[in-house]
Amino acid sequence: MRKVLLVTGAGRGIGAATARLAAERGYDVCVNYLHNREAALAVVADIERGGGNAITVAADVSAEADVMRLYETIDRQLGRLSALVNNAGVLERQGRVEAIDAARLQRVFATNVIGSFLCAREAVRRMSNANGGGGGAIVNLSSVAARTGSPNEYVDYAASKGAIDSFTRGLAAEVAEQGIRVNAVRPGFIHTEMHASGGEPDRVERVKAFVPLKRGGRAEEVAQAVLWLLSDEASYTTGAFIDVAGGR
Ligand code: NDP
Q: Which InterPro entries match (predicted)?
């Protein structure tokens, strides 16, 4: 039976690279996105050119009704889910904590934390062998920011990734006996469009000198770690973290 994977925020960046690599490895893939339909369709077109199977679904992972519709679409069009990558994430303009208001905190935590919880909840309901599911694997995108705290840039974002680390440990222990493994990848400075949201598109070029490997990472390099954690090669790995950060 083919494996079915949902990657949230898969139209661009790390999510897109993960969706493409997963299709090469034989997954049927749901490419979720928020606004950028063209980018998501381009990922599906690449997958189809390679002989794979993928669908796009527009859904805001922070909105419960959207998440329910996203999963119902997967149930109907791809079948039983076996893997989830909680990748959708946002950050806002660089600044200090003094400048962060409640509305911004709500936006950042809504997508990064609440979105990951809601998507994992629906995945567990489907994967759990206690409900007749076939088990599965979840990978959460955390960040090195969870360790560093991102001072003077976005402590709110870093704190949301700290929450993802706690979530990963707790959920992994909670669902281990239901046949589900839960792990996280912590990328460092990766070349994607996310840094433009912080107001500095070339941020990786500025900060790469602080990385022992002296360069930013590629989305494809993060995807390799995600796919390993999803695979049976990682069958005894749960509640674990892989830093893909050039030694930082
Ligand atoms: P990008 O900004 O390149 O892409 C983000 C993707 O998430 C887009 O496809 C976007 O959709 C989607 N998205 C945003 N909000 C939502 C939402 N509410 N619901 C559904 N989809 C949403 O990000 P990256 O690839 O750089 O980051 C991916 C993950 O990796 C994030 O969790 C990020 O925090 C983490 N990470 C990234 C690092 C980096 O240096 N790039 C470092 C450490 C962690 P659309 O295309 O429609 O806008």
A: NAD(P)-bd_dom_sf, Sc_DH/Rdtase_CS, SDR_fam
